[in-house]
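Incident log, support desk, overnight shift.

02:14 A customer reports that sequence design results differ from what the structure should imply. Their input is reproduced verbatim below. On-call engineer (initials T.W.) acknowledged and began investigating.
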């Protein structure tokens, strides 16, 4: 992705997570793509700001990744398996799980066959949260041309 910043002169290219600095002499046909990229990033920023202002729980990227992994991928899910899937340590998963459990979005559940095993399970409240988050994101995407900064409905 390329972005032409308002200050001009520098274009940052993101490819394979490497940032490279290039001079301002890019081909004119690229400008529309750059403008589109900037518009998409601006829209995502407005969506995130509106979400923070909505009063809904403000989850970290790790917490949201954990939620999405549990809700999108079939289980059973263990702390060890989630740590491997997200490439983080087990204590990172435990901390995120503590927060998400306190919010009622995920729960720990003992394995009936082997009481030593603990699974991470979905909850109705967590499903409702993700459904609402999806509607919020989709709604803000449709409101791309809006001028005012009204408070989002949740």
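02:41 Re-run completed on a clean worker. Output:
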């Amino acid at each position: 992705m390329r972005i032409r910043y308002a200050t001009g002169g520098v274009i940052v290219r993101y490819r394979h997570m490497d940032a490279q600095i290039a001079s301002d002499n890019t081909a004119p046909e690229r400008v529309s793509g750059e403008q589109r990229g900037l518009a998409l990033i601006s829209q995502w920023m407005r969506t995130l700001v509106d979400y923070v202002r909505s009063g809904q729980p403000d989850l970290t990227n790790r917490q949201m990744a954990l939620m999405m992994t549990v809700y999108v991928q079939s289980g059973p899910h263990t702390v060890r398996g989630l740590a491997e899937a997200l490439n983080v340590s087990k204590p990172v998963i435990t901390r995120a799980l503590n927060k998400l459990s306190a919010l009622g979005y995920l729960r720990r559940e003992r394995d009936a066959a082997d009481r030593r095993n603990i699974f991470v399970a979905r909850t109705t409240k967590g499903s409702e949260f993700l459904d609402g988050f999806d509607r919020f994101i989709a709604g803000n995407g449709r409101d791309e041309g809006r001028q005012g900064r009204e408070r989002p409905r949740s």
